[in-house]
Amino acid sequence: MQINTSAIALAARMAAYQPPEWDTLPDLGLYMDQVVTFIERQLAPLLPDKSSEKSITAAMVNNYVKQGIVPRPSGKKYDRGHLAALMMLCALKSVLPMDAIRRLLPSEVADMRACYEAFCVQYPAGLRRVGQALDKGEVSALDCAIQASAQRMAAEALLAREVAETSVPAKTRDKT
Fold first, then answer.
1. Using CA atoms, how far apart are residues 55 and 87, in angstroms rounded to an integer?
2. CA gap 16, 11 in Å, rounded
3. Residue whose C-alpha is closest to residue 100's, from 167, 160, 161
4. Is the pLDDT of residue 172 over 50?
5. Is the pLDDT of residue 147 over 60?
6. Among candidate residues 87, 88, 85, 75, the one with its CA nearest the CA of residue 108
7. 14-36 pLDDT, tens digit each
8. What number is the average pLDDT over the span 116-141?
């Protein structure tokens, strides 16, 4: 299978990408423009070459807060938990609907650390797997699209199951 140079370049960027660890996220309150700049810089290696596409804007952040996907800032300042939520949301929004992301992310900033630390392990591992397949020419665009569709269906089914399990009283769950 023939592979183009942009796919090879993307494979290399995917293999090298590592989101910032929790302890390296700024813990002093950032204002909106600082948040947008920070997230854009962190995600820039994954955007297509010479892309004018924005991974995040102030309007997007405001929408995510209004929809309850990202917790409200303290005053007008965003902390580590907010940055972690936005990093995960930006990485996942191309493959999951916002309602699924809302269910996936913790609703409390205090619970965000464990979720983000798992993301920091799993996301680069997933990128490396796909990047290696790209680099070796083992996948086509159709293969990638089909896998993305299947993974999305699986993620939504797992999230639906988790919601169902948490809405069933404990005594009922114990009997099954």
1. 10
2. 9
3. 160
4. no
5. yes
6. 85
7. 999 999 999 999 988 999 999 99
8. 92
